[in-house]
Every structure is written in structure tokens, then in C-alpha cells.
């Protein structure tokens, strides 16, 4: 479902990313394939320097359908950025990708808190995040971070996932499943 980024998938990911239903919400708005290739090389370099963690989201056939990243990593925190191609909307990929990525972040990378910054008008992302029981609204608990991302005007809602909340949720799933 998730794999480390590589340059071989850039063509198919770029084609999915430039779709008008996706493009306004991606972090790296690359208008050409070459620009996307360059941005992907930078992300791979950043991961080697431990300043971000980036994965390609795959469907059941192993085809790339989107990306998920943790960026601005510092003090065991970071910001999440996720996008999935329009043909894959509404099929559960977002939730499965986030759960797999959170498990990696919290279990393998010692991340403690992940922030999710979602544009107020991005209803699709807000609905998706609402399906995750361990995600909480952060405007009060992390007011300084909220003010920082909305320093000129209130564009974003801020959510967060703490390691302990995610782990407790995973333990509940395991107990219910057994």
C-alpha cells in the first residue's frame, strides 16, 4: 500500500496530480512533468537528510495513485500532506494510507504528534479526517501552531494525531478483531 518514493512513478503520479479535482490541494504544485520530477528528487533528498518522510500510495495492483508526506519535521512533530488521484476518490485508500503511514511514523520514526492542515473549503479532506477516531481538532490544544498557519487570515483548520491516541485506537481494533 505504501512504498518509498522513486523517480519511476513520476509520470503516472504527475498525470493524476494535474487533475483539476486534485491540483488545488497538493503541496507541490508542479505544472510540468519536469518540474514534478525535480520536486520528487528534492523530496527524496530531504528524506535522506531526515527532514521529511515521503511515501507513494499504491492500489491493490501496485500502481501509484497518490503520495503521503510528513514535512516540517522538528521536535518529534511534523505536518501531513496527502493527495490521491481522482479515479481513486471514495474507495477507502485515503484512510488506509493514513493508518499505515501513522503506524510507520509512530512505531519506526519516534514521531509524537502529526499535524493535519486542511483548507476550510476542502470538504472532501475534512470528511476523510472525520472518519479517523484518533484525529482531534487542534485550534485550542495547539493554538500557537494554529495561529502560525493562519497568520494572515483563517484559511486552514488544524487537526492533530498524538502517538498515544493512535496506539490506543490500534489496541482497541486488535482487541475487537480477536
Describe the structure.
It holds the Pfam family Acetyltransf_3. This is RimJ/RimL family protein N-acetyltransferase. Keywords: Transferase. InterPro entries: Acyl_CoA_acyltransferase, GNAT_dom, N-acetyltransferase. Helix content is 39%, strand content 25%. With 178 residues, the protein is α+β, with helices and mostly antiparallel strands. The protein has one domain (2-177): 3-Layer(aba) Sandwich (Aminopeptidase). Helix 1 (10-17) crosses helix 2.
Task: Tag the structure with descriptive keywords.
Acyl_CoA_acyltransferase, seven-stranded mixed beta sheet, disordered C terminus, 6 helices, 25% strand, alpha+beta, RimJ/RimL family protein N-acetyltransferase, Aminopeptidase, 178 residues, acyltransferase activity, transferring groups other than amino-acyl groups
CATH class category name: Alpha Beta
Give the count of helical stretches.
6
Kindly identify the CATH topology.
Aminopeptidase
The percent range for strand residues is: 15-25%
Q: Would you tell me the overall average pLDDT? A: 92
* Biggest sheet details: 7 strands, mixed
> Radius of gyration, Cα only, in angstroms?
16 Å
Distance between the termini: 23 Å
Structurally, how many domains make up the residues?
Answer: 1
Structural class: alpha+beta
Main sheet: strand order:
1-2-3-4-5-7-6
What coarse outline follows from CA principal-axis ratios?
A: globular
Low-confidence stretches: 174-178
The ordered H/E elements are EHHEEEHEHEHEH
CATH architectural designation = 3-Layer(aba) Sandwich
- CATH-wise, what's the superfamily? Gcn5-related N-acetyltransferase (GNAT)
How many beta-strand elements? 7
